[in-house]
User: Fold these one by one.
Assistant:
Number 1:
Amino acid sequence: MILVCGGLADGVTELVCARLEDCGYPYRLLDFARFPAGYRFHVRWTDGGPAGWIATDEWHLDLDDISGVYARLLGTDDRAPLPGLDPADASALRTEADLGLMALLEDIACPVVNRIGGGLSNNSKPYQSIVIRRAGLGVPPTLVTSDPDAVRAFQAEHGDVIYKSASGVRSIVRRVGEEQLARLDRLRDGPAQFQAFVPGRNVRVHTVGASVFATAIESDAVDYRYAHLDGLTTRLTPVELPASVNEACLRLAQACDLLFAGIDLKETPSGEFVCFEVNPCPGFLYYERHTGQPISTALAELLRGPTTDFSPHAFTTDKEHVPWPSA
Amino acid sequence: MFLLVGHSNDSCCQDVRARLAAQDLDARIVDSPLAPPARLTWRLDARGLTSSLYPHLPDSAIDGVLVRDTGWLDPAAWEEDDFAYMQAELRAVMLAWLNGLKCPVINRPDASQWYRSGVPLVAWRRQLRSAGLKLPEVVITSEPEEAAAFRRRLEADGNDGAVYAPLTNASSYLLADDDAWTGLASVQAHIAVCLTQAHGPTALACVVRDDVIWNGVPPSYAPAIEPALRRFAAAAALTFVEIAIAPVRGEPTVVLVEPRPRLERYREPARTRIVAALVAALTRVTAADAPLVPS
């Protein structure tokens, strides 16, 4: 039995559930929009891993029967208030309930897409750049600075420069222009992240276990995710990447302890690949709908049952020497 | 120069600075490392990683960093939304900067540690278990019947009782009588609660690299448990960590893990030994101190 933790109002979770139904793989939905209201939960740790169950009025699921977990958190606004409580108490109780569930997902032996710990590198883009480099992928020339002169020098060196948030706070990637240069003195309040603009073709890679799905994106927008805001269009096409790039993407997902990852690459005109970031909770719906790539099917197969050891960090104790498990 | 990232009144920062000073080594306590006079430039490209935090002091001149805090930002200086954004940005930048330094960084954080400081003991269970350490029974349950069964098991084992230990903070409440259990059931009407076993007096140990330093006379089981404590610290990539151990069911059991130990909890000579071990670790570069990415 597969456990899906998410909200059906979220298109990605809805797709995962629909694919599991298509495949005939039984699942239970823990609806984050309502959780913890309506759910009963019992987990016991003694000398080993967790044992116990999760239940609603309609179903009862023993932890031992779970073959895989798909978890996609919802924002606070997407979650219903807990009935009969004032908002502050409800918020505190829901946080407590979420942490209980996370404690379980961190330690349960089956595949979990994804455990919380690995995905936290996405909260620091420059830190993640270091991890990306270590996995063997190039990164765009990156400057994080609170020094206006350093930005000017960086721009003089690279010409076209973009800026974006260093943290996990989502930001639209923008080019540095006259308007931004006029405001560089504000950097003294805190550093910002700048990158050399890398020309070429955007490629989104989804790794699912040991499978790799690459999608080329053709767009005139600096940030293709927001092309529509500028009246621009985007075209997505499945592509095959060089084996060395595929392997590096798998190493990167492994280094981040992610069974499922969305990796943003760019292929330069000279055929090099640089990596921008790793998304631990990829919204792959957009890519699958446009290309027909069987990402959700691969995910369903992964969640259906382990063919190898997917226990937490089983393959990350020594990230450089432990082989990636076969699918 | 050594950088001690933490509040100026942090006793660990103070003691380490004093000991470094006694060795004629310069150390600076900074609570907001990215604030002026710092002027960070951090560059990563095909040539490698270079960084400089202070205008007239290259990072290569920083000999070691003790990390006691993620960096402080004055909320009074910011609008609420801007403050949250800036705090996230500064933490993100600090994590990257610390991981690029070539000098010893104690503890050099990974993203999981950096963004989950103060995690409850249950979050360390897997690594503690793998290191061969015993752990108390923990139950997270929404079921009053299961809580009652836990209570009965403890009573049958002659245990001191159960403790309600919320996962969202460090507080814990001994469930001493029937009223306490009734109150717990009212919480369970909304969420699952985390229960664990009460324990007797704790023995406090600090692992600093390979040294295990006990607060007071080491317990009789110290020689047997110290290798496991070192294994845990190494697996968790913690050069400096405090572990509290208490007898549960007659066995030494880990009841607390604290990656930012507070020196106030230690008596002499343990406190002096901890500081000496920290200074030794800060001033000695080994393979374990290698940054995430070589330049």
Note: Residues 308-327 of chain A have pLDDT under 50 and may be disordered.
Number 2:
Amino acid sequence: MTDYKMHLLVCGGTGCKASQSEQIKNNFKNQLQEVGLENDVQVIHTGCFGFCEQGPIVKVQPDNTFYVSVTPDDTREIINEHIVKGRQVDHLLYTDPNTKVQITESKNMDFYKKQVRIALRNCGFINPENIEEYIGNDGYSALGKCLEELTPESAIKMIMDSGLRGRGGGGFPTGLKWDITRKVENEQKYVVCNADEGDPGAFMDRSILEGDPHTVIEAMAICGYCIGANKGLVYIRAEYPLAIQRLKTALTQAREYGLLGENILGSDFSFEIEIRYGAGAFVCGEETALIHSMEGKRGEPTFKPPFPSQEGYLGKPTNVNNVETFANIPPIITKGADWFSSIGTEKSKGTKVFALAGKINNVGLIEVPMGITLREVIYDIGGGIKNGKEFKSVQTGGPSGGCLTNDFLDTPIDYDNLLAAGSMMGSGGMIVMDEDDCMVSIAKFYLEFTLDESCGKCTPCRIGNKRLYEILEKITDGKGTPEDLTKLRMLSHVIKDSSLCGLGQTSPNPILSTLDNFMHEYEAHVNDGKCPAGQCKALLQYVITDEKCTGCTLCFRNCPVGAISGEKRNPHYIDQSLCIKCGACYDKCKFDAIKIA
Amino acid sequence: MPKIKLAENTINQIKEICAQFDNQEGELINVLHQVQNKLGYLPAEVQEVIAKELKMSLAKVYGVVTFYSFFTMLPQGEHPISICMGTACYVRGAEQVLTEFKRQLNIEVGQTSPDGKFSLSSLRCVGACGLAPVVTVGEKVYGRVSPQQVSKIIAEYQQGCPSEAKSA
């Protein structure tokens, strides 16, 4: 690395790749060659920078200039101006939307100021396909420290003292889990990394695997050393091709460097990691279901106990942790339990990665200390609501979580507070909704997901959720009755109390939390036949107000079904029998002439 | 569904894949991944061969194939269109985009158009939430798609080769 004078870091996360970051990287390489600088400037594809809203992102080092929304046409300008002449390309810099000031370095951006990066420490900084860069950033030193200085007991004690809790959503103390698995006696034990990120709208695990695969490998080896396992398995979604490829590359490199395999670093500890592919089943995020899936069976959960730590993969003691949990392990070992537990709240230590998405200005991947408030996340980091709309709700915990209102904006985020507020931490999806989102439809959306993903093994989940969905459908179709609201609540509690696994036990949460926090919306649907957000199509009609319509024909041209007619410069008319209520005319009209009735 | 007669070398291909995994029952999911990768889908006849090779019941193989959404028993269109229905895409209007694709192609989710050109599916989060709503056609990703852009996207593939420019 030292041979190069400058580095061009191009984001190689999935989002930026979809916006041609591969082409940007190739352009840089070719054009650097043209000007004979290929030996002075290194081009690296890194993992996700997090600031997906502004992607693709290019960072120039050593001066840390942060270019946003770069296109393949901009590469020549960056080379000619920045690299050759040392002048920043102003129009590619990030402009603060409030102060209108251009900001050069990411650390001065509101989006990054409040973040604390532990699990994502290397994402966007190192080349995930080069083990030496990971090692150069303290990589594998935690594993070395464990093998040379720490006994398994003392390493587990460090994890326990750090207060790290499972980041997959449940929040079970990680050190305790390791300790339990360690104490079960068996010749063969397994370490499993759960990378079956099924929560729709959450992409933190994939970003870690894409941006820093070695941290997961190192942590799994540490876990193996601690619990007495010599075999690790990563259960990863087949839908994540880039993460799989980077993980495979990392595994090969780790083997070459003797950091996996027999007698690691000259010790008598041996450890090997295999990849297992998921095939698209949300329920496989549940430990027992995941283990069955790894055994090649249907991913149906089974009753606990026995817990996986007693009888897991192939009937052997198995420790299952999620990707983000593992990513926290190496820094805890190198920097100490006290350092980690100094961050966060009393019962939730450290940081949490969130995938911030929805109706928010700065969509992206963030890592914040526990105890930060939702307001800070949404307004300071997230930059507020898109298009100046009103904030309505924030959903955390995915299909198992709930929708929180304004009232919770100042609640410090941690496992227990979110649970008390009727939601949950979950794996870290955080979806922001504005005044245009109908909360009944949101509840229906999540139910549809659960319905699809219910494995069908136990009756309350399989049939109960179907009934819940039907009631919600009735309400959004404008046919609901007040009794339906009582039924929704009652049935929800029955499903929660009687389902076998976490999926069924939490599936009614989106309904219960919206009933609690947005009852008035349900009542408006049922009693007044109105959808306050104007989203439920059966309950609305688009009409053109003659006085305001200038006959500009914009709506006519944008209607996908030809339901709008009218002469130029004369008021137009919407044929309700043809209208599919897509709202395109409403969005396009510049004269506010289209009303939702 | 009409019975398909598998070609001799297709059967051999399947057998080879099973053998790569030592005909182990526990490797069923890996076998299915590889076979689907090669053949594009997993019709009953293919499952029969796999069941025989791995020495397990056909019902068990079928049970696994139908359990996971990644496996399909129907052939996919030449250009498989997937609309992301993750939450981030949903709140940014993915449903309207999906409705528009269904209307223009005149097929439902999980179906293939009669000419075999397009198949339609919904998927859960590709992880490009910054570009929501997201549509993928084959390997190509379209971001910030509106219902108005649907006809343009379909047209790109109807004339044969898709244009080089990627929409962002």
Note: The beta strands of chain B are 79-84, 118-123, 135-137, 140-142.
